[in-house]
Amino acid sequence: MRVRRRISDADVSKAPTGIAGLDVVTMGGLPRAQVTLIEGGPGTGKTVLALQSVVHAARELGESGIFVAFEESAARIVANASRFGWDLPGLQQKKLFFLNAQPGFDLVQSGSFDLGGLLAALDARIAKLGAQRVVFDAIDVVLALLDDPAAERRELYRLRDWIAVRGVTAIITSKESANAAVQQRGEFLQFMTDCAIRLEHAVVQGVSQRSLRVTKYRGSDFHANAAPYVIGASGLDVAAVTAGLATKSAVTDERVSTGVLRLDAMLGGGLFRGAAILVTGTPGTAKTTLCGAFAQAACERGEPTLFVSFDSTADEVIRNLTSVAIRLRRFIDTPRRPGLLQVFYQPALEGSAETHLLHIQELARRQRTRCLVIDPLSALGSFTDGNRSQNVAKRLLIWAKQQGITLFCSSLLANGAVESESSPLHVSTVADTWLHLSYVARNGERNRCLSIIKSRGTAHSNQVRELLLSEQGVTLADSYTAGGEVLLGTLRWEREQAEAAARQEAARTEQLAHLNLVTEEAELSSHLTALSRKLDAKRVELKLLKSQEIARRDTAIDDRSGRHSRRASDVPSRKGKRSVVK
After folding, report:
1. Residue 304 to residue 404: CA distance in whole angstroms
2. Which of 190, 474, 543, 573 is 20 to 30 A removed from 500 (C-alpha atoms)?
3. How would you label 426-459 residue by residue, b for 16+ Cβ within 10 Å and e otherwise?
4. Are strands 485-486 and 481-482 parallel, antiparallel or unpaired?
5. Cα distances (Å, whole numbers) of residue 48 to 80, 86, 129, 199, 307
6. Exposed e or buried b for every residue in 138-162, given b needs 16+ CB within 10 A?
7. Could you give all domains of the chain from N- to C-terminal order, each with its CATH number?
8. Alpha carbon 551 to chain centroid distance?
9. What are the phi and psi torsion angles at 554 (to 5°)?
10. SS3 string of 414-429?
11. How many Cβ atoms from other residues are within 10 Å of residue 77's Cβ?
12. Closest to 396 measured CA to CA, from 407, 411, 385, 404
């Protein structure tokens, strides 16, 4: 048998667990060729974590492993893990060996015993498999048989030395208990091991919440804060609070539509791609409607979109939005045609905020989501401690940015007090764009209004606009003021009708005045024409009179000359003088 060199505390290398969040918390994984303790109460997932680690090593890293079961049989462990899709039967043939080491229920102990025989059997199996990882699951079961703290410590030292000499990466799981003897054993286990991870499971307001914390890690830095985790379809998933918070996200000037053209105009052309958008408002202010409009616009651009609802089922969301011409069913996945839209209903009371966050992230990864809608985000704080839910919500926004996902989420304001400049989960400072919806109640009616509280990186309107919902769709009314006051609803309609009637009356008055002027102009023009004709007639008459007068004068002269000729009278000279006959 080949013996690997013993590794000192100052020479710690890491063995990845394959659980991304846990590897972040431990800054690379568990200490290689050393001992890690996983302790926790019943149902915390100690066996799942240990088994998942050796399965990852066998499948992805080519490292064979041995799983020593002190409590449950190997067959039962394999059956319980079948839902995770790890293909344990396939791994058992070459890479993974289960060793049943459960004490019989009818065991009658006589004399002392030790782990020497078990470790000798493991030596043979390690040599055959070339195993590099070993799990001792529920070691507290066998240690309890010793019923002697000194004997327990002796066997634990024996086990630690055996692990160190063989250079295998070992995981020991142990249950926690309120029993004093068990607590004393747990304290010694933490002292003896190189890395210790505590799993906790609590029920807060009727909701199950799990978290893990690394309590020690010799020779390595680690994140000491508690990290939430869930046991899901693929095993244990840890949401490392510090994971990726310092990672920079891509920044782009590309714009995407909100689904409401007039709102796009108020935002200077739409939303930035990869931005986090928050819509706040009291119940009934149309937060879900804006979420639906955004989802429809994203699908029309051909972008995979995930719509997560905490309040209504998928069918209810689709049906209700149809009333305002938002038709999402055409984009839904069908057995025959993969769709662009997935609508999931997640009742808030079915899990903690961390559970929902991990589920949303898994759904988004599977779909390769580009646009994510959460309605409402404030549901994360309904059944979770305030500080934890705030952290989860902020991590969601940061994660979406890092993935380049455009996040559009609503949040309920119970009292509508946007003046506090803070949303219930206090994510308004992280959001890039904050839209606020409100009611204005006046003269027996309530009207919806929209305003932009902030929109980073873009000029945006400061107006309060009325939000109009109808069978034709969603739009915003033009800003309307009268006497320095913004009018909405019926008051606006009445004022607009009165102004329209006044404009019509003014138009009629103007038309009548115009007709009167035209008539007077025609009359004057006709009169002027008659006068002109009369003037022309008078001129002709005057000319005729002059010509008649000239004619009469000439005729008179001719007549006078003729009479003189007949009477032999003197003929007048040309100068008008009479000639004298001598």
Report:
1. 13
2. 474
3. bbbebbbbbbbbbbbeeeeeebbbbbbbebeebe
4. antiparallel
5. 9, 11, 22, 12, 31
6. bbbbbbbebeeeeebbebbeebbeb
7. 14-104+115-238 (3.40.50.300), 255-492 (3.40.50.300)
8. 112
9. -65, -40
10. CCCCHHHCCCCCCCCC
11. 20
12. 407
First to last CA, the chain: 194
Rounded Cα distance between 503 and 480, Å, is 17
Instruction: Tell whether omega for the bond before 376 is within 30 degrees of 0, i.e. cis.
Output: yes
Residue type, 97: F
Q: What is the DSSP string of 55-120?
A: HHHHHHS---EEEEESSS-HHHHHHHGGGGT--HHHHHTTTEEEEE-PPPTT----S---SHHHHH
Q: Which amino acid, one-letter code, is at 510?
A: E
Residue identified by tokens 């309307």 is: 480
Q: Which amino acid is at 183?
A: Q
CB count, 10 Å around CB of 521? Answer: 10
Closest CA to 217 of 6, 30, 39: 30
DSSP strand pairing (341-345 vs 305-309):
parallel
Map residue 570 onto helix, strand or coil: coil
β pairing state of 207-217 and 169-175:
unpaired
Q: What is the pLDDT along the chain (582 residues), one digit of tens a residue?
A: 333 434 444 446 899 999 988 998 999 999 999 999 999 988 899 999 999 999 999 999 999 999 999 988 889 999 999 889 898 988 887 899 999 888 765 554 544 567 888 888 899 889 888 999 999 998 888 888 777 788 888 888 888 889 989 999 999 999 887 666 666 776 888 888 899 999 998 877 666 778 899 999 998 989 888 888 888 888 888 876 555 545 566 788 999 999 999 999 999 999 999 999 999 998 889 999 999 999 999 999 999 999 999 989 999 999 999 999 999 999 987 666 667 999 999 887 776 777 788 888 888 988 899 999 999 888 876 555 556 667 778 888 888 988 899 999 998 875 555 554 455 556 777 789 999 998 887 766 788 899 999 999 888 988 888 899 999 999 998 766 555 556 555 666 666 677 777 788 888 888 888 888 888 888 888 888 988 888 888 888 888 888 888 888 888 887 777 766 766 555 555 445 444 444
b/e 247-283 (16+ beta carbons within 10 angstroms → b) = eeeeeeeeebbbbbebbbebbeebbbbbbbbbbbbbe
- Cα–Cα distance for residue pair 567/564, rounded to 1 Å: 5
Q: What is the DSSP letter of 282?
A: S
Residue 72's CB: how many other CB atoms inside 10 A?
17
Token pair listed for 373:
């809608």
Q: Which of 382, 414, 373 is nearest to 285 (CA)?
A: 414
pTM strictly above 0.70: no
Distance, in Å, from the CA atom of 276 to the CA atom of 395, rounded to the nearest integer, reads 12
Which pair of tokens denotes residue 14? 């890491």
